[in-house]
Write a structure and sequence with these properties.
There is one protein chain. The protein has 303 residues and is mainly alpha-helical. The protein has one domain. It contains 14 helices and no strands. Helix 5 runs parallel beside helix 9 and helix 6 packs across helix 9. The two termini are 36 Å apart.
Length: 303
């Protein structure tokens, strides 16, 4: 079926996916709030999201006979799952009740810059002026998002810090992911990463699972996050990667904060302060700087 889709249809699906991913923080924030009647403990939400997505994606990997072939690669998949899936979501969901969906999606816009910084530190890639500028803008933007008055007075918003840590951990997994992508497809890494993420998350979530209220609101949230954003979302992304270069698809990353803030304002009634919006703009500009620099370098290497 994927082969029947035109390139225009795939691009349309990627844009739709970008909007849906942008709204994931708003959906998660609605159910991890302890005051909500649809409250799902963060650990339980993480586990169920992984489990639902794994049940959908793993059969495709099995059908393609796509599995890690060495114990070393199994260890890398485990490390990828721990950082990129488990720890990342646990921290992010734990931080949302003390933060906001708009703050979360703006902070997550910093990820491309952190990936570039990690590559410079761990892969010894050259630190370009673009990375320095982007990192400076990004950290300055994060400071503004966290509200300078609160930070300077020592009243840190713990939720924002946890979300920032989740982004830092997720960006770190890109180092492991790069080595795996040289030998396996994105489908393989994601499918088995979700399996490992589910297994690792179960002991943490076990005592919280009975607390999940199986209402219409919780079922919608689990469907949105597990089926739409994770399973269907990754499948669309895999199809897109087969048609277009990853660097071209990276443009969609810049749209997520825009969609995310709009959804948080429109559906949750959030009112991000001016400094947060300014900080988000700085983070976004820093991310654009890094990606454009990568495009130019790739073009120069092919010339």
């Amino acid at each position: 079926m994927a082969r029947r889709l035109s390139n225009s249809a795939v691009i349309a699906l990627v844009l739709l996916l970008t909007a849906l991913w942008g709204g994931s923080d708003s959906v998660a924030a609605a159910v991890v709030d302890p005051r909500s009647a649809a409250y799902i403990p963060p650990a339980a939400l993480t586990f169920i999201r992984f489990l639902v997505a794994a049940m959908i994606i793993v059969p495709f990997a099995v059908r393609a006979r796509s599995v890690p072939r060495t114990w070393g690669d199994v260890a890398r998949v485990v490390l990828f799952a721990v950082t990129g899936f488990s720890v990342n979501l646990h921290l992010g969901y734990a931080g949302l009740p003390d933060s906001s969906a708009s703050h979360s999606v703006l902070i997550r816009g910093f990820e491309p810059v952190l990936i570039a910084v990690n590559a410079a530190i761990f892969l010894r890639e050259r630190i370009t002026p673009a990375v320095v500028v982007a990192a400076t803008l990004g950290f300055g933007g994060i400071f503004l998002i966290m509200d300078p008055v609160r930070v300077l007075s020592g009243r840190w918003q713990v939720g924002d810090l946890l979300i920032f840590l989740s982004v830092a951990v997720e960006s770190g997994c890109s180092i492991v992911g790069r080595s795996l992508l040289k030998r396996y497809s994105a489908l393989t890494i994601t499918a088995w990463g979700l399996v490992v993420g589910s297994v690792i998350s179960l002991p943490v979530a076990w005592s919280d699972l009975p607390k999940v209220p199986w209402s219409g609101a919780t079922l919608f949230a689990l469907f949105y996050l597990g089926v739409v954003c994770t399973a269907a979302g990754y499948m669309v992304w895999f199809v897109a990667l087969e048609r277009f270069q990853a660097s071209r698809l990276a443009v969609s990353i810049f749209l997520q904060p825009v969609f995310g803030v709009a959804i948080a304002v429109g559906l949750r009634g959030e009112e991000p302060h001016v400094s947060a919006l300014l900080g988000g703009a700085m983070v976004l500009f820093g991310a654009v700087t890094v990606v454009v620099s990568e495009w130019r370098r790739a073009i120069a290497e092919r010339a």
